[in-house]
Amino acid sequence: RKEVEQDPGPFNVPEGATVAFNCTYSNSASQSFFWYRQDCRKEPKLLMSVYSSGNEDGRFTAQLNRASQYISLLIRDSKLSDSATYLCVVPSSSNTGKLIFGQGTTLQVKP
Amino acid sequence: EPEVTQTPSHQVTQMGQEVILRCVPISNHLYFYWYRQILGQKVEFLVSFYNNEISEKSEIFDDQFSVERPDGSNFTLKIRSTKLEDSAMYFCASPGGFVTDTQYFGPGTRLTVL
Question: Which of B48, B29, B45 is nearest to B37 (CA)?
Answer without folding.
Answer: B45
